[in-house]
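Tokenised fold entry reproduced for absentees:

. . .
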Amino acid sequence: MKPMRILLGIPVVAFVIACSSSSEGVHAAEMLPTPEKVTIVEFDSNGNRLQKVEVLQVVKSKAEWRKQLSDRAFKVTREKGTEFAFSGKYNKFYEKGIYRCVACNTALFDSKTKFDSGTGWPSFWAPIAKQNIKVGTDRSLGISRDEVLCRRCNGHLGHVFPDGPKPTGLRYCMNSAALTFDPAK
């Protein structure tokens, strides 16, 4: 091996090795974040609170998520897409039970908080437990919106708006593709 050269004070051996490897068809692995511990609340299908648990976040490569999720669920949860209004299977769906994250099965919403917002997306006035979701800022359309994510897998679920019914005045506007339904027993 040739002597290591220094470029701006930084060894370039790793760069040379990486470049030579990729030219041979070997690609560097996708850099995944280290899973952090998060606290969520578990619920049964009847909406009964079971326990608060500390779990590791679910972290997977894009390839692993593509293998697990439908194309539509991948587009929404992993790429922050939005399904067309009135196209989701849970928009006009009123069975009793729990709505869970399609990617990691975390309980997100109880059917008791679901209402018809007329917007074309399943809407809820509260999450089943605040610990199970997180809210961030979405500026993707040139405006600021509050994005709702699954706390355990960071999957995009939808957005929350301040125009919902009492008692919270909030409207959690979710994508059906981000949810699964666990019917009450």
